[in-house]
């Protein structure tokens, strides 16, 4: 039975976002430091959940089942476990001196003003190879933070470079779940979607790299003659994680292997005992508590919002505005973008909108490869920008609260440029032009 679309279904989500972002904005205007970290994000999500229980129809038992179903969604569980393992790897590696060694080695061999551009390229390579933006962020964000702190390069710009490169591959990789979902729902070949996608993503990436090289310079003067001490052995866990990630090894195996390898090196070097090694793992788990809870709660909220017709209302509202081929493409883009903003999961957003996008595309003669590319591009653009998305949450967690999402978002040049290219892609559709010419004739 098809869910009836209702605006009321979106209200709990609007409450969550308003409290989450509004508190940070208000406190920031009042001059409070780290304003976006004063109100714990899970509390804002909890407020949205309470409103959902009050506003939505059905018994408490039925609504609770929907909530638990969302919390236990496979994607949510995968993300939560990744958070824990990423926290543990970061904690153990830092405790045994791995971060300092990697950072100092990087400062020794890489010109400082190339660091942001280099991080973007590495992130793009890893995410394209593995098909996961989160895996790419987990692998390189700890090092990126250390490089930013030691080199004087803007932390926000450095993190934005990591995010941009990671979303490049998430959107483009042939093994990415978003790419698979987009091609399957539109019934097109992977290579056709890739060709349509690469014509937009590659130019956007090249422009971003140029901007990072030109503008990614340190904020202060750097002593180019300075020497940096590092231990090559302590760099090994990061190299192993990078190599395994590029090789496509399961992210759980990669992070677990990284934890154990860092632990062995720390024990051998005398950086900690077996007991302190265990404590560092647990401290890493604990450091991810807020992100873990927020992902769990927003997963449950998203399920309740969808069940109450909030997402269906979005679909119906946009569909009413579609009148032709060009508006059909803008409609597909708007649908997947707004759905992703509501559920904070680009794969789920594509799956929800896929059937409708295919129906709209067939009705208005939009090629499947175009609709597939638009679904993937706009879901990834939004997913990489929203402050409560898994990518942004885990990226900022490595900065230990020194950077807010609103410092990073304006610097996400790759996402912004890709959005501009995608809009031009729709506006310059040759088939649209030919249709207009035929009508004029």
UniProtKB/TrEMBL annotation:
Domain (Na+/H+ antiporter NhaC-like C-terminal) ranges: 21-216, 237-426
Protein's cellular compartments: Cell membrane
Protein's recorded name: Methionine transporter, NhaC family
N-terminal signal peptide: none
GO MF: antiporter activity
Annotated membrane topology: Multi-pass membrane protein
Regions crossing the membrane: 9-30, 36-56, 76-97, 117-145, 194-215, 235-268, 291-315, 327-352, 373-396, 408-427
Lineage: Bacteria, Fusobacteriati, Fusobacteriota, Fusobacteriia, Fusobacteriales
Gene Ontology, cellular component aspect: plasma membrane
Keywords annotated in UniProt: Antiport, Cell membrane, Membrane, Transmembrane, Transmembrane helix, Transport
Family affiliation: Belongs to the NhaC Na(+)/H(+) (TC 2.A.35) antiporter family.
One Pfam entry name: Na_H_antiporter
Source organism, top-level taxon: Bacteria
